[in-house]
# Entry
Amino acid sequence: MLNTNNNTTNVGYIDMHCHIIPHVDDGAKNSSQALSMMTQAYNSGFRAMIATPHYEVGRYEANKEEIEKNFNKIKSMVEQEIPGFKIYLGNEIFFSYGVVDKLNEGEINTLAGSNYVLVEFSPNDSFSYIKKSLYEIINAGYTPVLAHTERYEEVMESEIKNVEKLVDAGVLIQINSSTLAGNMGIGIRRKVIKLIKNDLIHFISTDCHSDGRRSPDLTECIRYLQKKTDEETINRLLRDNALKVINNEDID
Ligand SMILES: [Fe+2]
# Structure
């Protein structure tokens, strides 16, 4: 069992985008890697995660039962091994025709049973396609969270304008912590900070896939955020808004 008594980073961050369920996508390879990832997350200050396995037609289509079975397995493991660390279930949905029907039928998951859904696209999908698709989700009564927004070339090329249009339409914006650690280069990182300063980012999440290269370690991301923003912003992006998702409350 992880010794949770003398940890000094008891800040209670919530990771809203991560791939910790084994055998359902390209995330955790097995239960022991999942546990190692959750331990790293705990040591970075997280106290909860929403597991978001990929759902992509023709690529990742693990069915609901399989996902739930593997999720419940790691859930009981984490309850035993890391007391005080909670996990919830969701999906990262690669947008395609028919995903709204799948959501309505309960075949794919919203985030932690809320009205929020995590949606991704291809990096080179056009801004107009991304916007139109997200509108479709809004019109169906859900609140879309755009996964790793910094990856979409046309969304980002206008500096803040396109992101602003999405936010005005009711879309919430998620950024990966690794981008703030500098993994996509300093140009993108600078744009992300500009978006944060313009109040256009709602979540920073890890999108972790393993305990190695794509781990949930936050050290570098936090170091950079402390330099560029303030404690209140860090807590809002890494904790408060994700807690509102879990509680299905409005986010402004
Ligand atoms: Fe992801």
